[in-house]
## 1
Amino acid sequence: MNIQHRVKSAVKPLLFDDVASPQRVKAGPGRGVVALLNRRHDLQREFGLYEMELSRAYSKHVRPGVCAFDVGAADGLTSLIYARLGATVIAFEPEPTAVTSFVRNLELNPSLAARITLVQDYYRPDNYPEPEFVKIDVDGAERDVLRLIPGHPRCVIVETHSEYLESECNDLLLARGYTVDIIRNARWRRFYPEYRPIGFNRWLIALA
């Protein structure tokens, strides 16, 4: 993957400017969503390939009328995908630069923005309705967030960033009565992987 990343890093500057501009997602459950994307870094997101292994779970569990929590929402593209699938979304993202991008992406999708609430302060579950679907991507704090999730969502997806945290999250979910599995990378990732600076990235999916 490192060799491929170096090759792409050398070629992409010849093809694309290093700037984010509005691009329409071409495929997947987010097809048609418009987001600020930098083609040097975000081609997989533009073509619906980034974290595509989660698409089946999104399409199955994020439906009209569902309340979805997006904890660690980054620039909001995933929240917009959930809204496109019909969910009411509560998105938690405290990082200022990410929030700025999130707000701009909401402005690019006014019909979807009406179904999204962006929360910029600390996560306080008592202020919001109980979710039916939860996605957690918080770069190391996943265990702590998981302990705060209210109610008993039908589906919880957690990105874990170490074997220890994966084990801890797995045990917490099992103790709450969930069936837990690992979402495996697609086989084609061997040829076109996602570049991730954190060494350990794996998704758990928990079903009630």
## 2
Amino acid sequence: MSKSKFETSLESGIHAKLSALIGSWKGTTKTWFEPGVVADESEMLGTFRPVLGGRFVMHEYSGSLSGKPFEGIAIYGYDIPNDTFQCSWIDSFHMGTGIMLSNGNAIENGSSVLGSYGGPGIPVPWGWRTVTELKSPDTLVITAYNISPEGQEDKATETIYTRLS
């Protein structure tokens, strides 16, 4: 019996690369509210675990921003038929009560996905690009960029993790 596309991906494809994120991580997150000016730098703890037999990985994290605790969850996946990375993201600071859905492509050592946010106070949606790169087996960098309606892209957050386990 032949293997399914998912089984092959989990064994040696993109899902195997997603599985490389599984574990506990500790690092530092920098946050920018205006271009080039770091507003905060604080410790971040994160855990990646497989979901639904490795179809997805869930990133649960906690840290602080300006001395106040926050937490979040991102679910990363790869849609084989559509050849697309996908991410759903919630947190207690940036997203409020919303869920951001993002889609994108593979990059060297990871993925780059694009979502958007808006609302009554932000009538024209802004973009939010998240780049996840496994620089080495024990170094993970997650960088997010704010993209104005005019297309100006600026770094918003950057987490540099070191693997704990």
## 3
Amino acid sequence: MLSTRPYLIRAIYEWCNDAGFTPHILVQVDEHTRVPAGYVKDGQIVLNLGGNAVRDLAIDNDWILFSARFSGVSQEIAVPINRVAAIFARENGQGMHFDVLEAGAEEPGAPAPKPPEGQPPEPPKGRPQLKVVK
């Protein structure tokens, strides 16, 4: 069974764009989240997903991937979908809040996230996992 979280995130993102609002996400940072550490406060970071702020945005069922500039330096950002605590419009705060899952926890019926393209997979923790090679 697929998680509804990525579908809801994409829907709120599209609504923000259609309404002329600026989509932002609140991310609970962990060891799987790739964001500039200097911008993390109390284990969280708010990221602007607006068209003027990001390049090559991809929101798939496991990851939110894009590049953005922080203090003029381009950074590659990778956020596991299950670490998104909220998506909302900057202008009015409307959006959706999500329960953030602890590292290694999965939403009921959801597969574990795959590493971003070009990244080595994390070593297995806990019980062994089968890796499908195409």
